[in-house]
Design brief:
By secondary structure, the protein is an alpha+beta fold. The protein contains 8 helices and 16 strands. It has 3 domains: 100 residues, no CATH class; 43 residues, no CATH class; 158 residues, FomD barrel-like fold (Beta Barrel). Strand 8 and strand 9 form a beta hairpin.
């Protein structure tokens, strides 16, 4: 017997369409969902639910809670269709699902099956929820064919127009268990909306006395150039001494970076690539990635994607 779901939050429209297509029921929908779906098969206006789905506090994903067997059914469906989704804090009858870059993009398309939706819709909702909804309703209800144009314009105004040279950007390095580690801030050196790239200068290093992976001592005056591009499964930090002597490179393997007005965010995938000052290149922490897979945080496809990204980066650095 399929689960009966009660769904609330910014992902409600997309997830309602998704779960109805999985043969599940969506019960006690909001007035907005009733208006958008009408008399759709599987939508039940008043009924008890087996599973409740709601936004996480930061709206980067959802909390799923209810009867254990039905919660497991929901998680299985999500992981089968959103390969980069992260499952954490799973216990009997409860779990959290984070939606990184590609999961959000897929949810955008599920929502677009219900009503015209711009690409990046769910990411933009985290930034300016009411503004995004209003602009979509006013523009796309009349010109649905302009969803790409409107989305690009929205992305530029909400995010990229705020990126000016010299602005300081926070870096949210999110571990699979949900811990958010804030790396040293970066000052924007270059920004390119068309290529979706940022280049940052970082110089206020804290924490350990040696650089991760490199094992080389940090010194006063050190700095790093961090290169970030949307859509890539990694981004690179190149470390220098104050006299511009190369210390080494550290390539973080992660879900593609999401850009926000005052920070970037990604899910760290544990595995990394290191290039020593003598040019030696190697993969680090692959066993940590494997452990996260065995613990149920990630899908097999995401495991293989992370490994492939790491070894491709090794080849690129060796060929340079």
């Amino acid at each position: 017997m399929s689960a009966a779901l009660k769904i609330r939050g910014i992902y409600a429209t997309a997830l309602t369409r998704f779960f109805l297509d999985q043969g599940m029921k969506v019960v006690s929908p909001s007035d907005t969902i009733i208006r958008r779906f009408g008399k759709t098969k599987g939508l039940v206006l008043v009924a008890s639910h087996d599973v409740e789905i709601m936004d996480l506090d930061d709206m980067q994903g959802i909390r799923v809670q209810g009867e254990t067997a039905f919660v497991d059914e929901v998680i299985t469906a999500l992981r089968r269709n959103f390969f980069d989704a992260i499952c954490r804090n799973k216990s009997e009858g409860s779990a959290e699902i984070e939606f990184p870059f590609f999961a959000k993009s897929t949810l955008d398309e599920w929502r677009n099956r219900v009503l015209p939706t711009v690409p990046r819709h769910h990411q933009f909702r985290i930034i300016a929820s009411d503004h995004v909804n209003l602009l979509e309703e006013k523009t796309l209800s009349i010109h649905p064919e302009k969803r790409g144009f409107v989305g690009r314009s929205m992305e530029k105004s909400l995010i990229w127009d705020t990126f000016e040279k010299g602005k300081e950007i926070k870096i949210e390095h999110v571990k699979m268990d949900g811990e958010v580690i804030y790396l040293s801030e970066g000052v924007i050196l270059e920004t390119d909306f068309d290529r979706k790239t940022l280049v940052l200068n970082r110089s206020r290093f804290s924490g350990r006395t040696k650089y991760d992976g490199l094992g080389i001592e940090k010194r006063e005056g050190d700095y790093a150039i961090s290169e970030i591009q949307e859509g890539l499964w990694c981004y690179q930090h190149t470390y220098f001494r104050s006299d511009d002597t190369l210390i080494g490179r550290y390539v973080n393997i992660n879900t593609p970076v999401e850009f926000y007005p005052d920070h970037i965010r990604y899910m760290d995938l544990e595995i990394d690539v290191v290039q020593m000052p003598d040019g030696e290149v190697f993969v680090a922490d692959e066993e940590d990635l494997e452990e996260r897979f065995k613990a149920g945080y990630i899908s097999k496809e995401l495991l293989e994607t992370a490994k492939k990204a790491a070894y491709q980066r090794v080849k690129t650095l060796r060929d340079e």
